Amino acid sequence: MKSTHKEMRPRFSAQAGQSRFRYMAGTLVGVLLLAGAGALRAQVSTTGVASNPYQGSVVTDKLTDSVLPLSLDEAIHRGLQHNLGLLLQSQDVQSASGQRLQQLQSLLPTVTGSAKVAVAQTNLRAQGLRFPGFPEIIGPYGYTDLRASLTQSLLNVQALDNYLAAKHNFASSKLTAQDARDLVVLTVGNAYLTCVADAASVDSARAQLATARVSLDQAVANHNAGVSPKLDLLRAQVDYQSQQQQLIVAQNMYEKDKLALARAIGLPLAQQFALTDKTPYAELDHADPATAVQQAEEQRSDLKSLEEQVKAAQLQRKAAAAERFPTVSFSGDYGDIGVNPGSSHGTGSATGSASVPIFEEPKLRGDARVADAALKQKEAQLNNMKGQIDADVRDSILDIETAARLVQVAQSNVELAREALTEAQERFKAGVADNLPVSQAQAQLEQADSQYISALYQHNVAKLSLARALGVADTQYKSYLGGK
């Protein structure tokens, strides 16, 4: 799932860093997955579309005045149509197909046709030809030649091996394009889940602001009644304004992450849209790591793609060795030639040839070493990817189990923090305590809400990450997010 190890860190207490941290972590996962990496772990990244094409898209839709309802399914569908990374990979498939056809031509007969009409005049004196009785200038004279030519390679082992290698490279490119669909699902899914978490953060900030307003009103009433000092009033005002700041920051991050989602799925950036899926918490059935690893090795398209690349490298090494072999070819032509088509006559030729390199030892050895080094690199990459897939699956399962426990604990903390805040507010309202416990309880509730939102986000992304690790994100992401 990723090409480097990344760390899933807890949600920041300051909301200014929360959603940006989550989204950039997920988009970094998207580009690193292409190299066949491991389990999802969030990490801040500043890479742009130039280094991560899965963050970009090709925009073809027209801007509308209405608010577009956007579900997770619709977002992923749009991503699979417009995401830049997938579109670029599709062009790579076309390029590999073209290279395969180029190599095929060296094995097929080459037939060309020509039609020639020539008119000439020759100066014999200028060519040093002087014969008594012969004119100095001959011509003008002309002829017409209509001819077809054929060239066919009868024995060329190197060309055959190169063509077979191109076929495997083409198959590898198609598998990589299939793997790119999983990357789009993961990248878009992460961006969508980021916006869902942002929306929850905005709702939480609004609720905290309303609670801070209640505490401020109580502090004003108690101060006016002369039962609490001005310090309580000032503390409540500071808490209220701090919550206003948190709401402003949360709204800003939400809007910016919506722009990032729009960039990944090809929506015009000015297009207004509303998320319709909230992706609630749903436990995932326990997955056996050994069984999951076996499933991933059977289904991961990037692994199959690398296996095809190894086969291509083996054939390219054979082609390099085949440079020493003789090649046999045939060429021939047939046509009509004469002063004009009415007085022409058929002529033709046929030639068979065989060639063998005699003194090209430095080149032959160099080509063999280059091909052998390329093969060993692909074999090492294949071996590493198998180990990485093992790590991908196991990391994802651990992340899911850990995030599930975090969700349960965070949910309990929210309930306890809300109860503590209610108790502190009642004590302050009754005049048996100042509002310092209220301020502390509000901070604890804010932190508990933040941790719960982060844990829920991490759990959902970890499930999506496991689907990617198993190579089924494109077809089964809904069942994993819903708790397979």
Summarize the structure in words.
With 484 residues, the chain is an alpha+beta fold. It has one domain: Up-down Bundle (Outer membrane efflux proteins (OEP)). The protein is built from 10 helices and 6 strands, in the order αβααββααβααββααα. The chain has helices spanning 15-33, 72-82, 84-105, 157-224, 230-265, 289-299, 301-321, 361-429, 436-470, 473-481, and strands at residues 68-70, 110-123, 137-155, 273-275, 327-338, 345-355. The strands form 2 sheets. The protein has a 4-stranded antiparallel sheet, with no helix packed on it. The radius of gyration is 36 Å and the shape is elongated. 40% of the residues are buried. Mean pLDDT is 86; it is low at 1-47.
Keywords:
484 residues; alpha+beta; two-stranded parallel sheet; 10 helices; 6 strands; single chain; disordered N terminus; 62% helix; four-stranded antiparallel sheet; Outer membrane efflux proteins (OEP)
What percentage of amino acids are in beta strands? 5-15%
Radius of gyration from CA coordinates = 36 Å
Q: Ends: how far apart?
A: 20 Å
Regions with little confidence, pLDDT below 50 for 5+ residues: 1-47
* Lateral arrangement of strands in the main beta sheet: 2-3-5-6
* Overall number of structural domains: 1
The residue-averaged pLDDT reads 86
Tally the helices: what do you get?
10
What's the CATH architecture name? Up-down Bundle
CATH class category: Mainly Alpha
| Proportion in helices | 55-70%
Query: How many DSSP E strands?
Result: 6
Give the name of the CATH superfamily: Outer membrane efflux proteins (OEP)
Structural class: alpha+beta
CATH topological fold name: Outer membrane efflux proteins (OEP)
